[in-house]
Amino acid sequence: xxxxxxxxxxxxxxxxxxxxxxxxxxxxxxxxxxxxxxxxxxxxxxxxxxxxxxxxxxxxxxxxxxxxxxxxxxxxxxxxxxxxxxxxxxxxxxxxxxxxxxxxxxxxxxxxxxxxxxxxxxxxxxxxxxxxxxxxxxxxxxxxxxxxxxxxxxxxxxxxxxxxxxxxxxxxxxxxxxxxxxxxxxxxxxxxxxxxxxxxxxxxxxxxxxxxxxxxxxxxxxxxxxxxxxxxxxxxxxxxxxxxxxxxxxxxxxxxxxxxxxxxxxxxxxxxxxxxxxxxxxxxxxxxxxxxxxxxxxxxxxxxxxxxxxx
Length: 311
Hints:
single chain, mainly alpha, two-stranded antiparallel ribbon
């Protein structure tokens, strides 16, 4: 079907803009999280190799078990009714990204700080970061919000659209499955070995999107009248300061754009300038994030239009 990719993309973007995220019990990613939790109950006892193998198997099996039936079902829908196919595909694609949800999560933190309620802000910021938020100061909460605008721009929007453009809806779904595995078990600690495959695969899948996200922040900085030169310079000079091979690119680009220092105690300090962190800076990070996403959405729409014309 000509231009089906463009229609699905536009439908998914419209759903995200108008509706945002479904409540957790109804959200496909919440269902995925429950499925992963059930799978983890079968984790074998024993050494690291057994758990590494188990972790790799459940990621691969989950991808196949979800994507194959979806692909076959959508192929049937396309032959039955192209309009229904577009609507269902758009809904499923929207479940792989959450731009409005990211903006709202950051906005919730910003509003708490604006009304001088750091205790509530510490609770709200838990949806954005994995660190212990109980002792964070107001400045550290602002830093966490700005960091999230930058880092989560990649996995909440840029990467899903990137894989949709390359591999269609199955590509976006596979990315979201791997990213969810990484979020649940990809950290050191209890799931260190079981989650290692998911963590490494997530790093690989985000390698290109993270760098694209950083470049988009640079371009968006020029449009938003923040510091595009500082964004470019900080990104090139400091991207390797984080343990993650990908997160440093986007966070450094945002730090330089806003001229601020972003810090995670004991982990990294990203020095984009000497400007003070404030609610205004958090708002600027949201504007840069949305502008970056807008640029990327237009690029992917153009790609899908060209693919439609080629058909």
